[in-house]
Model the fold of this input.
Amino acid sequence: MAYIPKTGRTNMHVLVVEDDAVLADGLSRALGSHGMQVEVVGNGAQADLLLQRVTTVEVVLLDIGLPGIDGFEVVRRLRARGASVPVLLLTARDAIEDRVRGLEQGADDYLVKPFATAELVARIKALARRHTPRPAALSLGDLSLDTCTRRARVGDQAIELSVREWAVLEYLLQHAARVVSKQQIIDAILPWGDDLSLNAVEVYISRLRLKLADAGVTIRTIRGFGYLLELAA
Ligand code: CA
Done:
């Protein structure tokens, strides 16, 4: 039988999204004492921004009732971006509809407040164990995207991509050799702009085609459906 250290792996990176400062502080201390590296934000907008920029978060503890963007919307946006980081919902509302809705939006588990620290720690560890991190690099032909450093290269040559170009290309690469619709692309990059038109997607695609001219890959237009990223013939 394999030896499993009692405390598990230390320095697990946990994001706590909680607007109750006293509870957030308590969570931070409790998880910190279990060797976890805890980051706390107090509202949904901050959480959304941080989750777009920081790819090292391993588990998100997410309160549902937050000022501004609520927990449901944070998790919806996270999953729309294709992020698979496990999310544990914290809810004060002992309503089954909330839990169902949270899970439907893509949360992995929930805890109803108040809860015991021991149970919280056990759930976090279980979620982290089950989670397979997304690949650090995506590539096709001579094109490669490093999703940690957010650098794109064609062969040895770095290419400059805007935030939205990056998002479109990352989505296409995650779905390489499959047809994706413009609407799917919009849904995936929505966090950066909520009034994106189908025409805007066409603009990003044509810019990407120019930048990927020497990458050995093609973004084919599948008329009436969408796009297909594949190796150039
Ligand atoms: Ca709250």
Notes: The pocket of calcium ion is lined by residues 19-20, 63, 65-66 (CB under 6 Å). The domain at 2-130 is CATH 3.40.50.2300 (Rossmann fold). The chain has two domains: 2-130, 137-231.
